[in-house]
């Protein structure tokens, strides 16, 4: 058993979190991850209404009675979803852990605190992690430049970002981005993190509710098969390389307004990729870590393999290096 401040303070068996994932973070996956002793997270905005979110948590409760969380991604938008209503639905659902991301969660914190909910805020820089600690979140998750989704605009990879954050942050720290196996878990712990957060790796599991073609693509793809879109709009997103993301990058390279690419990046098209397995139907999120994903296990197999191999790496491979054993 790997014990960290995160496992102790959040009551989770293993220091592994399945990060919020639009269209992917549904009851089947989050429930299976939590049942395996890691922390599964349901993505609030995947549900069409706050009432659907309450029902989704109830569905996950049929799979597990272990701790489970909900992700609330708060992005600035022209027509924002009713964030306060989703927040109230999270509270009503009875979950005790929330992952916030996207922007400052301050206005929601008192509500979560009053309901006894612990908040993990996910961000992409040390300064935002410090700010989150100051406003009273219970843990921070920090995404390096390798990550799937929004890496921010600083371009600092995890190998530097995680220890830089660990030097400053006093609350539990979760390393995120580029982690898929026990090697990544042990490295993150060595860098000063108290646990890891994974997105892409959990998308390639049996319970992940995306088409088999998407999972197969994650296994086949290399670390070179992602694209950074929206760079020129200061809203960078790392997504799978395909005909659409290449076209978006091409249009952006000539200088463009959002309206020039809007038809390509519509969320409904990305959703089609996951539902129909048509890999070029739209933009879909994936990280560089796909280059080291080689199979599609169940979430339970993945978690127990990671924890078992991490113990082996720490207790045997690394321990064997002390005293000149020369172990590999
Ligand atoms: C398909 C997909 C959808 C995602 N959607 C969200 C989201 O809605 N909100 C969020 O905070 N993070 C989202 N993420 C980011 C993950 O929670 C996590 O931070 C990221 O995947 C970590 O990098 P990794 O993929 O290298 O493990 C998404 C990731 C993936 C792969």
TrEMBL record:
<dbReference type="Pfam" id="PF03060">
    <property type="entry name" value="NMO"/>
</dbReference>
<keyword id="KW-0288">FMN</keyword>
<keyword id="KW-0560">Oxidoreductase</keyword>
<protein>
    <submittedName>
        <fullName>NAD(P)H-dependent flavin oxidoreductase</fullName>
        <ecNumber>1.13.12.-</ecNumber>
    </submittedName>
</protein>
<dbReference type="InterPro" id="IPR013785">
    <property type="entry name" value="Aldolase_TIM"/>
</dbReference>
<dbReference type="GO" id="GO:0016491">
    <property type="term" value="F:oxidoreductase activity"/>
</dbReference>
<dbReference type="InterPro" id="IPR004136">
    <property type="entry name" value="NMO"/>
</dbReference>
<keyword id="KW-0285">Flavoprotein</keyword>
